[in-house]
Amino acid sequence: APSGAGMGLPAAVRDRVAAVHRESTLPERLRLYDGWAAHYEQDVAALEYRAPHLAAASLAFAFSAPLAGARLLDVACGTGLVARELHRRGFRCLHGVDGSAGMLERARSTGLYQQLRLCVLGREPLPAPSEHYDAVTLVGALGEGQVPSTVLPELLRVTKPGGFLCLTTRSNPSNLRYKAELEAALGQLERSGAWQKLLAQEVACWERATAEKESTQGTGYISGVVYIYQKCPVPHLEEG
């Protein structure tokens, strides 16, 4: 096992990752993401960040319809890491939203999205009509100090009945309170009949830990989880 979690990571990478997960005001956080955009892909490569790959693989597996025709919304799309993985698996109709203009600029340069919009999740509704997408992804941004778990109904709103939602969160110590809140909200929506859970996959080596105390059992990595939900079709009301 590595002698110190995150110790092999450059200090600048550790600092940038820590900064965006810290409690901060929304404008401050968006400014951090704008500033991070230029280094983001090198940093997540150094972290061995596997969420985009795992999420895209899980979502593609859930689909029975041809992927090329599916309309997909990549929420908190960042620089387009998830889009790259989705595209590799055959998804072609990709729309993205993010709260950071700097990140969107990078995403635009990939040429993978047919539409990109600025949207601060949790503050404003998604810029899409109801029941518009065959799938919605929110990978990496459901976490402490990031997107609140209260956004789930908004993600459901823009998903077609029978459509899929792919979500991820981290299971490291500083995110456990958030994860418990998120899972309570996921469960509540399932009990209300809004969606059904198809997958909740815990992954041990999600990304490299940036601090010893975050590492899973001294492995030098933190763990995470991929969830796949399917939006329930609207029940037909009995006549009369």
UniProtKB/TrEMBL annotation:
Q: Where is the Methyltransferase type domain?
A: 73-166
Q: Which Gene3D superfamilies does this one have? A: Vaccinia Virus protein VP39
* Gene Ontology terms, MF aspect: S-adenosylmethionine-dependent methyltransferase activity
Q: Organism's domain of life?
A: Eukaryota
Question: Which SUPFAM superfamilies does the record associate with it?
Answer: S-adenosyl-L-methionine-dependent methyltransferases (SSF53335)
What name appears for this protein in its UniProt entry? MET27 protein
